[in-house]
Amino acid sequence: MQVRTVATTPFTDQKPGTSGLRKRVPAFKQPHYLENFVQSIFDTIKAPAGATLVLGGDGRYYNREAIQVILKMAAANGFGRVLVGKGGILSTPAASCVIRKYQTHGGIILSASHNPGGPDGDFGIKYNGGNGGPATEGVTEAIFARSKALAEYRTLDVADVALDELGETALGQMTVQVIDPVADYAELMESLFDFDAIRSLLSGGFRIKFDAMHAVTGPYAREILVNRLGAPADSVMNAVPLPDFGNGHPDPNLTYAHELVEIVYGKDAPDFGAASDGDGDRNMILGRGFFVNPSDSLALIAANAKLAPGYRQGLAGIARSMPTSEAADRVAEALGIPCYETPTGWKFFGNLMDAGKVTLCGEESFGTGSDHVREKDGLWAVLFWLNILAARRQSVEAIVREHWAKYGRNFYSRHDYEGIPTDAANGVMKLLKDSFASLTGAQFGHLQVKLCDDFGYTDPVDGSVSTGQGVRILFVDGSRIVFRLSGTGTEGATLRIYLESYEPDVGKHHLDAQEALATLIGIALQVSELKQRIGRDKPTVIT
Length: 543
Ligand code: G1P
Ligand code: ZN
Description:
Bound molecules: 1-O-phosphono-alpha-D-glucopyranose, zinc ion
Helix content: 25-40%
Number of domains: 3
Structural class: alpha/beta
CATH architecture of the largest domain: 3-Layer(aba) Sandwich
């Protein structure tokens, strides 16, 4: 079989964002667009001849076509074997698990995570290295640089590979091995959590509802929650993955997972509710009529980690992204372990985990995970919660309230302004940065600004520096406002405002977060001139 070298011209917009290259499907369908980016990855990573690659995606529209393109290009670029999930499916954490378990060179994951799919929806592609984690900034920048200079790519002229049967197929010199996308991952979960205890919880009448949002976790949740843990079949809803996610927005938050939210806040609600996103790395945790803020979830998992067999030996440390609340810091302090504050995006946790500095990490954006893989992991978080619930036999709400009583409550909220004009968004960020001097020391009612900056991070493992990671306004009493522009959107700009204040007084813990944060919200709107500049008087999503 002949390798065909195809002449091409570079695209100028193949810069990976927070989590890989994400564009609308029509952009990816342009001739040579996907091929150029894949060749840029291969040229950058320089895998030795015969290396093994993992390949799979969240099943969204264009997943199958892209897999065929990548398989042929991998064969033409000298890979020896590609492990591809059956039907082209691999959740992001499962891909990370498979990369690590079989010690492969790395993997390519096709997903635009929680962004909507379909012919006019989003598509995405990212490279994960041999540790199973997203490529570091250095690698993604090198891929981008390569994409701007690319003159040709290599492929094979062969028929498509069958993806729906397990087994091996030869593609030129390369072997395509279609694997069960769930088995390795499910086995890893069984090794971490007390499945017997969870099984007994579920058989004792504790009712759960997991919303797969017609995305990748359907088959994983069925196998683990229903087949292995004995939950009734109707415990998993929207379990069939669909290329357009059933026209939904597969983002597990209070806005987009409203179907589940209505169930857990409704009559005869289950004891526990959870949802995951398009590619299975996010999680939302709910109790009966009760929402667990993701920042609190991280803190709570950390405080209760020893209840799970895989974490019985204790935690090395915790890492959280800068905008995530400081609730986890308080647990780390109590446990006498370090807590690291990184920029947004999972790629910053990889070095810390590889160096053995942290066991748990999390982001406010419904991302929680540990060093069992190098991605955040939605079902892992669900199982961790079920393990804690099985051990403590209290309601979700009671566990959270006890946690607040012990550590104090970090009131926390994120306000997203989605799809705003890029110029206006940049204008807001510039205004804030230009205001650092005048804001420092300024008094707003009882709150005084202690410090303003644009967050920067020096990786404690490799010394690499990342700047411009979000504007912070820090107050003397520990309250914070953070402004950031999203790096994952594909349309206009998304401005995120993160708000936090600490409340040690248990008598005030019943307050609604928006109520408790009202003063900070007012300050955020005032200093950013948001209403005047973007003409919106309400955020698109409040978490
Ligand atoms: C968002 C989240 C961030 C997360 C990323 C990928 O990125 O805020 O925490 O790591 O998605 O899931 P953003 O759009 O804010 O750049
Ligand atoms: Zn995701």
